[in-house]
Design goal:
Layout lengths: L4 E4 L5 H12 L3 E4 L6 H11 L3 E4 L2 E4 L9 E7 L7 E6 H15 L8 E3 L6 H13 L3 E3 L5 H9 L4 E4 L1 H4 L9 E5 L11 E7 L4 E5 L2 E2 L4 E5 L2 E5 L6 E2 L12 E9 L5 E6 L4 E3 L2 E3 L1 H8 L5 E11 L3 E10 L6 H9 L10 E4 L17
Parallel strand pairs: 1-2, 1-3, 7-8, 7-9, 9-10, 10-11, 22-23
Antiparallel strand pairs: 3-4, 5-6, 6-16, 11-12, 12-13, 14-15, 15-17, 17-18, 19-20, 21-22
Helix pairs in contact: 3-4
Length: 366
């Protein structure tokens, strides 16, 4: 039997969930396609990922793709930090491992709890909600994208578990949910107790570290400042066959981080994001965490700009509120917690920051 990759070109909703189950029942894998992409971009992506079938609300059509392995369940297109699309191949066993660990951590009770999927299903953060609900047989409500009013209505209607990104989290009343999972580097440090900061990636089938603590069966180590992960949730390979996992099962994430004496993980950002100013190392995320608390700050991003004296100069890009903060205010705020060389030397005001559809900052575009 040849196992195929089936591209799902349909909006989020019950039909999408039923299509996933049908594809899996037939032994095939799914490629959820972002419906916000232009049609040509969708077709280019489907061809690049080697899908053999395209399934949309009108029916199915065949293509000259290439097969998947028998246990492959999901291929997720991810641009990573370079913008070049990669297909992350996740097996059924990896999806199940992630769902079981998450449901165990959250103590999901299918008789009480109800999941809401409102993030794009073409991303692992949205798709993983479907897997958690299906595996635990908990009720599930699926939205075709994020709409704050609709999310709030769902919460008042009985939904009590949800995955969000920081920008979406700020638009809803998180207290209406029992638990809110939030991924990304800009999760507020002063978040409510029911909001859980998650760390993971497409290659781990969604989050595998919650509030700095690894989920069950997840191992973390730091090698030369880089976070490495070993767990049953790891992907099999990329769609082109590339596999960065070491022989003994460790995945080098490309993220810089550290573990404290109690094994709690702190992620500083991508290894290539570090700013070197006057010979000192500055991690943008660490500075951003502090600056985000400043009055008049809606959003910010810290970058290094070429500087003839310092090599690189620390610069903060700001999306301001009505009354923006001053440079002196921001420098003093940073110096309360970090060395002086981490404080920004200049401000650039911008209307918006470049982000992915999930709200992740695209630093390579800054």
């Amino acid at each position: 039997m040849v196992n195929r990759l089936v591209a799902l070109c349909m909006p989020g909703g019950r039909q999408f969930v039923e299509a996933v189950q049908r594809v899996w029942d037939e032994g095939d894998a799914v490629l959820p396609v972002d419906q916000r992409l232009p049609k040509k971009a969708q077709l280019d992506l489907i061809g690049h990922m080697g899908a053999s079938v395209v399934l949309d609300p009108a029916g199915a059509s065949s293509l000259d793709g290439w097969p998947v392995e028998s246990d492959d369940a999901l291929v997720v297109a991810t641009s990573g930090s370079t913008g070049q699309p990669k297909g992350v191949v996740l097996e059924h066993r990896a999806l199940v491992a992630n769902a079981e660990a998450t449901n165990a951590f959250l103590r999901v009770d299918p008789d009480v709890d109800k999941w809401l999927a409102c993030l794009p299903l073409s991303h692992v953060g949205g798709f993983s909600v479907l897997v958690r609900a299906l595996h635990s047989e908990a009720p599930l409500e699926v939205h075709d994208g994020f709409d704050a009013d609709r999310v709030m209505a769902a919460a008042r209607g009985g939904v009590n578990l949800v995955s969000l990104v920081p920008t979406a989290m700020r638009r809803v009343e998180t207290g209406l949910f029992r638990k809110v999972l939030v991924g990304g580097s800009s999760v507020p440090a002063n978040r409510p107790d029911n909001v859980i900061a998650t760390y993971g990636m497409t290659e781990t089938g969604s989050g595998v570290v919650y509030n700095g603590h690894p989920l069950e069966n997840v191992e973390i180590r730091i090698v030369k400042g880089e976070v490495q992960i070993r767990c049953p949730m790891l992907f099999r390979c990329y769609r082109n066959g590339a596999n960065p996992i070491t022989r003994d099962g460790w995945y080098p994430t490309g993220d810089a981080g550290k573990l404290d004496s109690e094994g709690v993980l702190t992620v500083d950002g991508r290894m290539g994001d570090m700013i070197i100013t006057g010979g000192e190392n500055v991690w943008p995320v660490a500075v951003e965490r502090i600056l985000s608390k400043a009055p008049g700050m809606r959003e910010c991003a810290v970058v290094g700009r070429p500087d003839p004296e310092w090599g690189q100069s620390v610069v903060v890009l700001i999306v301001p509120d009505a009354v923006p903060p001053s440079l002196d205010e921001l420098r003093e705020l940073v110096k309360e917690s970090l060395p002086t060389y981490c404080a920004p030397r200049s401000i650039e005001f911008v209307e918006q920051l470049p982000k992915t559809s999930l709200g992740k900052l695209q630093r390579h575009l800054l």
